[in-house]
Amino acid sequence: MSTRTFTFRPLDPLRDAELLHSWVTHPKAAFWMMQDARLEDVERAYMEIAADEHHHALLGLDEHGAPAFLMERYDPAHRELVGLYDPLPGDVGMHFLTPATDRPVHGFTRAVITAVMEHLFEDPGVRRVVVEPDVANSAVHALNAAVGFVAEREIQKPEKKALLSFCTRDRFEAARGAAV
To answer: DSSP E strands: which ranges in the chain?
Structure first.
């Protein structure tokens, strides 16, 4: 169980674009690959996601209802990983982004990824979560491992060399239990 309480709401591409723009263009978000994006670019990118039946963007909200992080859920059979691995029934892809802050809170990012995984596994159809972070993103590799992801192999995506990793419901539960 995550120690913080987060809720989720669908991202509103127009209403949330300014906030998202500040998050995705920050130097800390370099692996999000939107460093040079203009506000209109962010609006357009998230309007495309909002219109896509295979890709969804959500804002994670803190206990006061304030936006705290971004989460994306996608169907890897149709987005991101098409042709790069053989998806299994119940696979779901995930991205998450915590915004940069001048006052880091110890354990925040771990609580976020735990909440994201809990949210994904609330769907009984989800059997395995798939991620494909940049091979150079060692911080997220450590976070992924902490919640039960196992790296399978490096893959070459059009925009990056990525580490294809998977987390089953059982591995997540075991990692969550070990962290208590």
So the answer is: 7-10, 55-61, 67-74, 91-97, 128-131, 150-156, 161-168
